[in-house]
Task: inverse folding
């Protein structure tokens, strides 16, 4: 290969460049036009990894854990990310989000959420049904002061510093998880929550708005008897045709250390606009709504560090093929084989969730791992993001497959020491991270030790904050040392063909 | 000197036309118009605009970022992603008097300032800006709370400036502490006699306890009250203070108590643990907010703020 390359170089050097180069340009232009005409996208971008902390906050050393990401699909240069990042200048000011307007190359911190100082859970989505090129950001935030309060809010322009408009507020819920679908009549918003106000301990709930958040309706999606409640994670996923799935942990027993749980998937075929949403998918065993992907999984629950410095108990993800809503993937973690703390599994369904693979998809049983996030690209390729504790390091993987993981491409985005920095609170990295697809990219966010060491980031990395990669140290922009901490990282990975 | 005097006159005329800028000038220019002009002419803008020390301190306390600099651009922005408007000016920093540890700001940096009255500034205007943070990206953008022309002569109370470590990043400003104390039922000086786990009673409805990663893991601190700084007399000079002992993100900023700890505690009647459903319990409080438990070394500051909020 090197020989071929060098011979081409010699040819170029000896050619009459004044004639050759214009001809080459015409040829390449024609080829590019041909590729576009045939519907092929331009050459995919390379992998990028960016530390979200902006240069002007180089002095920060917070534990900016539990990241999330929203992409404005009509204008994917605009993105919003979040983490447990406090307001950098005020104890009483708004909690911030990270905003990029250049496709993730640079990020600013913008204090626009309705929560004071720092959220204690935040997820968001940017649907595009309305004409807001830098919106509409729909967020579910938990504010934790004297109690825990859920705000469901929106921003029509995330580049401004206007506080998000709170559309709905209530307490007694946990872990809001927002997805949205843009339609002309108003964005449809789906917020998975564990709602402790639901009757009979059937707490898995989807808050649905079909009018851009103006009104919400809480829809319980658990139809079976529980151990007093369901697990914290309730995850919706929306296909372009309006099919909405949601996955949750149906807790059947709980002894304080282990939740005996079904992994349940519900479905709605009409964007949850009907009178009785999420009832259509019934399990063959009991004819009740909600297909049971796996029954009686033993899920360890620890509100103290259990895997490295991280807690465990409720990692769950669901993704639907955006263009073929019958294809859906689910991933979760439970107690795996002996000696293993927490094992990830991925299963799939090709018939709208009616039947599921009986065993894990090939090479998707991942030991000692958490923070799973799935996404499906426009070409059907599934992306599988997770963080694995391996040999004293947190290793962040993004795996892609176009054939149900029979073959796959695995890229390590980060491999960082798991014992440093010492955790300031839980979760250490987050109870979740996130993955999305847009055009020919998977884009996502994860959290990691921020030591500026290229060896920790095999695909390369860009820091906005002041960092010395030779000395492997951070500084505040004035040369004063800054201790390492947990930072959120954005990444973009080209979708495999 | 003549030219400086003319410029000072023009500036003073603007001050008069606008009945003293919305900015710090409105707080501090309490001398007569003629006197101010004369002072400007004699001493230059910086000294002429100097406010009273107590007012300056009050404004400084409200400000999270204070710096002196020279206006380099009107209606501009110093970095992408800052919404540029007639109210945004770019200032080249000469010196930084106060900033949060996290914020990178130093001499020579260009800062976008959203000012209250753009007509008060021209390119080359030198001023001290009292500000709050706005947008943090490749550079810093701030919102003006006030300004005074020239470099501040008297040093402001510098809090947390130029300290790169995480220590002190959570320090409450005077204003924030005043607000915390206003919202409290009691502010006491006390000592923790004992700490023990506390289990909230099960609700009569029979509803199960919640299992959540945000479980507070309630504990109780028995606090001997040594003096009451705000609120009425405490019966028996002892109170029960409930606090979340969990190191979850929801409670990371809530004070954690240890036996023999002395301090100043901002207390509220318990409405958070769920125990109040059966009626108010005597002498049972919560201490949940950031800054609700202060070290005893802060006693003088707390007393001063309570006396002169």
Result:
């Amino acid at each position: 290969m090197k020989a071929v390359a060098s011979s081409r170089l010699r040819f170029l050097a000896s050619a009459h460049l004044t004639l050759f180069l214009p001809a080459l340009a015409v040829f390449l232009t024609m080829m590019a036009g041909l590729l576009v005409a045939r519907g092929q996208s331009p050459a995919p971008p390379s992998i990028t990894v960016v530390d979200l902390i902006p240069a002007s906050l180089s002095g920060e050393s917070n534990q900016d854990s539990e990241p999330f990401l929203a992409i404005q699909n009509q204008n994917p240069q605009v993105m919003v990310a979040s983490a447990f990042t406090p307001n950098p200048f005020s104890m009483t000011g708004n909690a911030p989000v990270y905003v990029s307007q250049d496709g993730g190359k640079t990020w600013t911190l913008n204090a626009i959420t309705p929560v004071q100082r720092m959220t204690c859970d935040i997820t968001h989505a940017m649907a595009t049904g309305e004409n807001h090129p830098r919106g509409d950001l729909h967020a579910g935030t938990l504010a934790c002061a004297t109690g825990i309060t859920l705000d469901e809010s929106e921003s029509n322009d995330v580049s401004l510093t206007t506080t998000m408009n709170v559309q709905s507020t209530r307490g007694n819920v946990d872990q809001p998880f927002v997805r949205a679908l843009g339609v002309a009549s108003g964005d449809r918003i789906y917020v998975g929550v564990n709602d402790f106000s639901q009757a009979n301990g059937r707490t898995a709930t989807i808050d649905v708005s079909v009018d851009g958040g103006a009104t919400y309706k809480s829809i319980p999606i658990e139809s079976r008897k529980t151990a007093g409640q369901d697990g914290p994670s309730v995850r919706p996923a929306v296909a372009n045709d309006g099919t909405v799935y949601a996955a949750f942990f149906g807790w059947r027993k709980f002894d304080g250390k282990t939740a005996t749980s079904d992994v349940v998937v519900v479905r709605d075929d009409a964007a949850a606009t009907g009178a009785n949403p999420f009832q259509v998918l019934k399990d063959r065993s009991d004819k009740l709504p909600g297909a049971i992907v796996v029954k009686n999984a033993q899920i360890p629950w620890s509100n103290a560090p259990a895997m490295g410095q991280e807690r465990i108990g409720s990692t769950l993800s669901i993704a639907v093929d955006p263009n073929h809503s019958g294809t859906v993937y689910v991933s979760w973690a439970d107690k795996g084989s002996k000696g293993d703390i927490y094992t990830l599994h991925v299963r799939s369904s090709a018939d709208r969730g009616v039947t599921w693979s009986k065993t894990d998809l090939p090479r998707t049983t991942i030991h000692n791992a958490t923070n799973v996030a799935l996404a499906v690209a426009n070409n059907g390729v599934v992306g599988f993001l997770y963080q694995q504790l391996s040999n004293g390091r947190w290793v962040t993987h993004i795996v892609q497959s176009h054939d149900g993981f029979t073959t796959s491409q695995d890229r390590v985005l980060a491999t960082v020491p798991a014992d440093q920095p010492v955790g300031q609170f839980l979760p250490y990295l987050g109870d979740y991270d996130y993955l999305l697809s847009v055009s020919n990219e998977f884009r996502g966010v994860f959290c990691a030790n921020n030591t500026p060491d290229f060896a920790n980031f095999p695909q390369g990395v860009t820091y906005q904050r002041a960092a010395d990669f030779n000395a492997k140290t951070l500084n505040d922009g004035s040369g004063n040392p800054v201790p390492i901490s947990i930072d959120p990282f954005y990444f973009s990975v080209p979708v495999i063909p | 000197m003549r030219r400086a005097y003319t410029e000072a006159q023009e500036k003073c005329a603007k001050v008069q036309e606008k009945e003293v800028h919305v900015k710090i000038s409105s707080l501090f220019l309490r001398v007569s118009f003629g006197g101010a002009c004369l002072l400007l002419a004699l001493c230059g803008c910086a000294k002429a605009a100097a406010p009273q020390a107590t007012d300056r301190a009050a404004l400084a306390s409200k400000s999270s970022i204070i710096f002196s600099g020279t206006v380099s651009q009107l209606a501009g922005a110093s970095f992408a992603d800052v919404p540029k408007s007639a109210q945004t000016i770019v200032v080249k920093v000469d010196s930084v008097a106060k900033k949060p540890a996290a914020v990178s700001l130093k001499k020579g940096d260009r800062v976008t300032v959203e000012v209250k009255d753009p007509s008060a500034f021209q390119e080359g205007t030198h001023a001290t800006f009292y500000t709050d943070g706005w947008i943090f990206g490749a550079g810093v953008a701030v919102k003006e709370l006030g300004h005074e022309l020239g470099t501040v002569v008297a040093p402001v109370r510098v809090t947390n400036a130029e300290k790169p470590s995480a220590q002190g990043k959570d320090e409450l400003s005077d204003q924030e502490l005043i607000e915390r104390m206003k919202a409290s039922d009691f502010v006491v000086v006390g000592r923790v006699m004992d700490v023990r786990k506390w289990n909230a009673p099960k609700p009569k409805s029979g509803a199960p306890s919640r299992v959540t990663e945000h479980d507070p893991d309630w504990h109780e601190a028995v606090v001997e009250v040594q003096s009451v700084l705000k609120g009425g007399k405490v019966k028996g000079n002892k109170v029960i203070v409930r606090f979340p002992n969990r190191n979850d993100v929801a409670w990371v900023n809530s004070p954690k108590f240890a036996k023999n700890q002395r301090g100043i505690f901002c207390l509220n009647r318990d409405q958070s643990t769920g125990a109040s459903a059966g009626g108010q319990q005597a002498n049972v409080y919560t201490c949940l907010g950031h800054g609700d438990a202060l070290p005893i070394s802060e006693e003088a500051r707390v007393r001063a703020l309570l006396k002169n909020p």
Confidence is low (pLDDT under 50) at residues 1-42 of chain A.
